[in-house]
Specification:
Radius of gyration: 21 Å
Shape: globular
Strand content: under 5%
Number of helices: 20
Length: about 450
């Protein structure tokens, strides 16, 4: 039952994100803001994850996985309710941050429980099994979001998490093992403040860039301050015995390639789910339901791949898969710039299906390569760093997609449909090129890297 329990957490997070993407134009209209301004609603959640994930491993070690996991589901459910009753975009963003605080403990602690329960030789199979139920959410989410917006109210989107959260709490107390450490090190409070402040400030600058609310000098000053805070954390992490994030893990080649490559790859891929609904609904004039249907092939393709991914990695290897697959993803994103009013729907479906297939292969490969050469006592820190960097890249990816689009349209508040289509097309070109460039990072891998998790061999510590 443990994989299914963790899948409930993944399902909640995936359902919340995919439903919300489809509803972005409708929520923007209801709250009287520009569609591109909705990036703050999406990015604030993932930013909250990035800030609070670093303490999730310590919390699980100190208080036990059962208590932390249950508290996380409860906080996520409460945040969902508050999002549903929000009256303006500022309150909604604040509630999304609260919701992200729950998600920051929920998914990483669930993944950590799997890593500690299953042997490395079974890790790919276990994670793939957990991902299958959670992939139902991305498959149903876009259509469910369209149906809710079309026939009910956008607030229902957040209320859906309440019964799922209650069921998750019930399953936690029945089936989740209570893993904890007898002796835990002190929490790096200073490191948490330095890292959280630096990442939060950097994200804020990306959010307001292009909004014309700050002068260029002010934004440069904030960027310099963010860099100073993050550099300060790097210095502290090198000198303290128990840092918030063990940056020394980046000395391991496979870990470094997996985390760094994941970060830069997701900068290009992370903003695509935000752009699709804008292209379909604002640009091409599709209804929310039609837009949701057009997003479903991506999840269907991702779900189908899970059954064969172990064989692909065993045959081709991590280096071959990640280099070729990243380049393919970049080209597919560039091809999305050809979608217009005259594009046949079957062609759009085919392109989306292919994108979902290769995206799933990319994510699973990067997520499992993280653990290829880490030792038993490093798994908690490795999981924390990987999850933190993943959420940071998604948050920055949404901001980058919005910025790239806004750069190519004359007025983001009153842009016409052709202008919106042009801006999104140019954003696809920029994000696709960025994704192709990220293949350079995976070139540092060697043949045979990752065999310990793709073929069941016992890895040697790096």
């Amino acid at each position: 039952m443990l994989p299914w329990l963790v899948a409930v957490a993944f399902f909640m997070e995936s359902l919340d994100t995919t439903i919300l993407n489809t509803a972005v134009p409708a929520i923007a209209a209801a709250l009287r803001v520009a569609p591109l301004s909705m990036k703050s609603v999406l990015a604030s959640y993932t930013l909250s994850l990035a800030v609070f994930i670093p303490i999730s491993g310590w919390m699980a070690d100190r208080f036990g996985t059962r208590r932390v996991f249950a508290s996380a589901i409860g906080l996520f459910t409460l945040g969902s309710f508050l999002c549903g009753v929000s009256s303006n975009i500022h309150v909604l963003v604040a509630c999304r941050i609260l919701q992200g605080g729950g998600g920051a403990m929920m998914v990483p602690v669930g993944r950590l429980t799997l890593v500690r329960t299953f042997a490395k030789s079974e890790l790919v199979r276990a994670m793939s099994f957990v991902a299958i139920p959670s992939l139902v959410a991305p498959m149903l989410g876009p259509l469910a979001g369209g149906l809710i917006v079309g026939y009910f109210h956008w607030r229902v989107i957040f209320f859906l998490n309440i019964p799922i959260g209650l069921m998750g709490l019930y399953m936690v107390y029945l089936h989740l093992p209570d893993c904890r450490e007898e002796h835990t090190h002190p929490l790096d409070v200073a490191g948490f403040l330095l890292f959280g402040s630096g990442v939060g400030l950097l994200s804020y600058v990306l959010e307001v860039f292009g909004e014309h609310t700050l002068t260029g000098r002010a934004m440069l000053g904030l960027l310099a301050l963010a860099a100073l805070l993050l550099a300060g954390y790097g210095i502290r992490a090198a000198r303290t015995t128990f840092p918030l994030l063990r940056l020394s893990l980046f000395r391991i080649r496979t870990f470094r390639a997996a985390v760094s490559g994941s970060f830069f790859t997701r900068l290009g891929i992370g903003g695509i789910p935000f752009l699709f609904p804008l292209l379909y609904q604002v640009g091409l004039g599709f209804t929310p339901i039609q837009s949701g249907v057009l997003l479903m092939p991506q999840a269907v393709a991702a779900m189908s791949l899970k059954l064969i991914i172990t064989k692909i990695l065993a045959r081709v290897g991590y280096r071959g898969v990640l280099i070729s697959n990243t380049a393919i993803l970049g080209l597919l994103i560039i091809l999305f710039a050809t979608i217009g009013a005259d594009t046949p729907v079957p062609l759009i479906v085919t392109q989306t299906f292919c994108f979902g297939f290769f995206t799933s292969l990319q994510y699973t490969s990067m997520n499992t390569l993280v653990y290829a050469d880490v030792t038993e006592d490093q798994t908690s820190s490795a999981s924390t760093i990987a999850s933190t960097m993943q959420q940071m890249s998604i948050s920055f990816g949404v901001a980058s997609a919005s910025l790239a689009t806004a750069f190519f349209i004359p007025d983001r508040f009153h842009s016409s449909a052709p202008e919106m289509i042009h801006g999104i097309h140019q954003a696809f070109l920029v994000l696709g090129a960025l994704t192709v460039l990220s293949t350079i990072i995976f070139g540092g891998l060697k043949r045979g890297d990752g065999d310990s998790v793709s073929e069941g061999q016992v890895p040697h510590p790096a």
